[in-house]
Amino acid sequence: MTLFLQDLGYLDGPYLEDPYLLSTVRGSLGFQSQGVITRQSPKGWQSTAVITKSNAKGMQALGVMTKPDPKGMQVLGVITDDRPKGWQSTAVITRSHPIGYQSLGIMTKPHATGWQVEGIITKSKAKGFQSLGVITRDRSIGWQSEGIITRPHPKGFQVISIRQKPKGWQATSVLYNVTQLRVLYNFQSRGLTGLNWNASSTYPTGHFGANNLNTDIVEELWRGASGVKSVNLDCDTQIPQGVFLDTFALLNHNLTTSATVILLGSNNPYHSPVGVQIPLLVTAENLFYIAPELPIKGWRYWRIAIDDPTQPGSYLQAGTCVFGPSEIFVRCFTQDVAFRKMNYKDSVVTEGFSSVANDRGIKKSLRLNFRNMQYLKTDYRKLSRIFDSVRTIQKALWIPTPQFATRFAVFAKLKDLPEESHNVISEQGDYISLVLEMDESI
Amino acid sequence: MSSRNRKPWETASVINQSLLDFCQDNLSIQLDLVVEIDAPDGNVIYASNRNKYKGDYFYEARVIFPTISRTLGQWLSPELEFSTLTIELNNADGRFNHYLPAGADYAGWIGREIRVSLGLADNASSYIEIYRGTITDIGGFTRSTYSITFVSRDQFDKINVNFPNTALTSTVFPDIEDSYAGKIVPIIYGDWTTELDAEAVVPAFPVNGGKAEVQAGTEPLWLMISENALADFITSQVYLYRGSLMIQFNAADIFDVTVDKRMFKIRQGLCTPPGITEVEPPVGGDPAVLFKYEQGDQIFVQVKGKDLSGLSDNIVAQSRDILKSHGGLVDGDFHSNWDTYQSKATPSQSAIASIKSRVWIQEPKPVLQYVLSMLEQVRLEAFIDRTLKLKINSMQFEDWQPLPSYIVHNWDVVRGTFKPNLPQQNVFNRAQAVFSFIPSKGEEGRQTSLYRNSAAILQSGKEISKKIIFPNLYIKSQVVDQLVETLRLASAFTEFISTEITWRGLLLDLGDFVALDVNIGSTVFEKVPAMIREIGYNPEGLRLPLTLWCFQMCPFPGWVPGYSGIVGGYSAIISEET
Predict the structure, then answer these.
(1) Hey, are the CB atoms on A357 and B52 less than 8 Å from each other?
(2) B 500-519 residues with CB below 8 A of A?
(3) Which of A6, A345, A386, B136 is least enclosed by beta carbons within 10 angstroms?
(4) How confident is the model over B282-294, as pLDDT tens digits?
C-alpha cells in the first residue's frame, strides 16, 4: 500500500499566525490528521486515518511496535479513561534514536479533551516532536505544552507563544540555555529601596555596611567584623512574587576557594522553611552561579551563607552582589571573543633608561561580535532592550560563556552604543551585524 | 636592595625612605591621593581620583588633583609663598546639590577646611598629610553644571594679618589732640636704652594734650609708649624735643607709671605740686621757664621692650612671640628647631643667642612678612614644612649638609626635566649694611663700611654692589658678621636646577639637602650638595617637581670641592674697603 502524506508538519496551516489560533480542523476536538505518506523513510509523526464519524473525538491507538528502529509514530497506548476525547497515548519508547513522535504520556485528567502530553524524553538526538511538558491546567482544551528545550540545536517543532485561554492548538515554551550569552542588568537583588541587605556581621566602623553590595562600584565593600569567618548575608528583594534567580554573581570578594557558600531562597524572612538551597562553587575574586534549568519558582528572600574557616585575612568582604533573571540569548556571538586585562598606572620615564610606575590596578574589557541577527527576532530585541536600559552609563553583568563563567565575565559598561550594520533584503529580511565592547574601567 | 617580595607596599604600614627605596628597586609602588572636605552640615566629603578606601572610609572617584607646591621663596626676599589648592569636585549626578545654594544643607563654604593626604593603598596609618587649607573668602567656591570648584589657601595664610593695629582714639582718650587721634600704638621689643643716636629715640604719645587744663599747664600730661607691656621704663631718661633741643625731664616729674610701664604722666610747671623741669634756664633776673606742654612738643623715652624671660633681645624669640601674640599661632604650630636656633651659640658669626635685636613698629605690616624679614637678617628663613609646622631653614654655612644621604641619580630624574639655570637675583660681590632703625628718625641710623670679595670681582670683571638693610640689629660688629657671611654666599657661583624626580623622594622637604649624582647630556654632577627651594606633588605618576640650589662652586664646611675658579663660599676672603 502506498501512502501519501502531505508533508505539512503539525498543522496544515500557517503556524501560529492565525491570531485566533483556529485549528485548521474546525470544530474538532482532539487531534486529527489526514496525510499521505510518500516517503520511504518517513520521519516525524505520520498517520493515516479517516474519521468517518461526525462526532468523532480524538484518536485512539493501541499498538505494539516490534520492529527495530521504527520510524514514524509508535504508540503503545493504554486508555484508562472513560470517554476519552482527543488523543491519548501511553507509551514507553524502548528504541534508541527514534525518529518521529515519541510520547510517554500519563493522562491524569478526566474527560481529557484534545491532546495532552506529559512526557519525558530520555533519548538524545531525538528528532521530530519532543515534549517535556507539565500540564497544569484542569480543563485543558486543545494541545497545550509547556516545555523546556534543553538540547542544543533542536530540530523539528519549537514553539514560542503565550495565550491565556487558548483554544485549539497553542504552544508555550521558554527557551532556556546555559550555553549562550546572558546579560544581567535588571538587578532585582537591589530591591525597591536599595537598603535591603543585612549581614550577620559588619565591621563596626567606617563605610562597610551590607548595602555596599548594591553599588556598581566593586571597590566599595561590605566587610565583616574582624575575626568572623562565618557570615550570613540576607537580601530581601522586596518583590512579593519573588525573584526567579537564574544568574548570580558575588564580585571582588576575598573568600578562599575552600570556602563554603550556599545560596538559599525562601519566602520567609527567617528562611524557615528554606525553599531552595544552592551550593555555589567558589572561584577567586569573583563568584558566579548559573542556574542549570529555568527556575520555575521565585523566592523573595535570599541568603548567602558563607563559611570560610581558612580565610587568611582578618575579615570577610565582598564588593558587589547582583542576581536575578537575565537576558539569555538564543544564538551566539561569533567564535572570536576579544578579552583583555588592562593595567592602569601612572608611569614616568627617567633619565636612567627605566621607568617607574604608580600602580592603579587591573580592569578587564571584552569585545563580542554579532553577525546577521534578524531584526525583531529574539537576540536583537534583547540587545535593544539592554541598550535602552543601561546605555553607556550603567554597568551590567556580561557572561559570554555561562558554562565557564569566570573566564570572560565582566561587570562593565558599554563603551559605546554600537554602530549597526544592516543587510536589508526585505522588511522581515533585515540582518544586523554589530560589535559590542564592554569595559570595567569606564 | 629589593628582596623577592616585589610589592612591599602591600604589607607596609608606614612610608619611610627604606620602603621607597625598596619600591624604586622594583620600579613600582601604589601611592594614592585623597582629599577630605568639611561640608557645611558638619559631615566630611571623602573624595579621590579613584574609588578606594583609606582605612575605614570610602573615597569616591570625583576629583582630579592638581600639582600641590610649597616653596621657600627667593633668598633675601622675605616673602612666604602660601600654597594654593584649586580642586574641582564632580557633581554631575547632583550628589552634592544639597550643599549648594537653595540646597537643604547650604550654609556657606568660606573657611571650611580642605585636607589632602597621600599614602599606600588603603592603609590609613601610612598616609601623610601634604596640604591643609581653608576655602578662601574671595572666589573660594564656584559651581558649574557638573562640578563644584574650591579654592583654598594654606592654613598659615590666616596669620598674615597686619600688626600693630591698636589706634589712639577719642573714644578711649576724649582729650587727645586731633594730631594724635588715629595714630597706631607701637609694638616694642628689645633694648632701647643703648646704642642710640640720641639721648632717647622711642616716642611717647600724649593722650590728653587737647584738654584745656593740660594746655594751661595746670594738669599733668598723660602719655602712652606702646601697645605691649614693657620690661623697663627709665624714668630718668625722658626727654622733651622742642626747637631741635633735647631737654631731659627731671625724674621727679615723671610719675604715675603704670604697672605694665606703657603709660606715664609728666608734671607740668603749674601743676599742684608743680613740676620742676626747666625748659629754659634762668636768664638774668628772669626765672627759669618750667615745662608747659605746647603743641608740637615731642617726648622721647628709654625703655626695654616686652619681657621674654631672658630672651628679650633674642631675634628668634622676638619673632616667635610676635607670631603668637599677633598672628594667633600657638606653641604647637612651631617646629622644635626654633628652640635650636634660638639658643645657637657658635660659631660667633652665627651665634644667635648673642646677637642683639630690637623692634619698634608702628606702621602696620603683615605679621609673617615682618617676622621673615627679622629672621633674614640673621640668615634664617621660615617655611611650612611637610608636617604643617612653621620651621626654620638656615642659610648659615655651618648648618648645611656636605654629605646628604639622599642621592639623586639619573634614574630618579624624569626624562627631559633636568634644567640648570643661573640665578637672576642676589648675585653680588660688594655690599654695605645699613642698620639700627631709629624711631625718632623713621629710618636706619647707622651703616657699615663697604665690603668686597676681590677675587669674585676680578673673576666677573665688575663690581656688583648691594645695600643690605638690618633694621632690627644694632651692634655693628654683629651686623658686619652677617654682612660678610651674606657676601660670601652671594659672590659664589651657584645654580638653580629645576627638575622632576620620582616618588622615591616623597619624604623630602623644603630646606633638605640632596646629593646630585647625575650625568645628563653635558651636565655632570658628582655627589654635589643641593638645597631644595621648591617642592611639589604632581599626581600624574606622583612626580615631584623640585627647584634645587646647587652648591657645586660654593664650598661650605665639609664640602670643599677644589674646583678651579671657586671665589665664593664660606672661606672666601671678604675685605673692608677703606
Answers:
(1) no
(2) 500, 502-504, 518
(3) A6
(4) 888 888 899 999 9
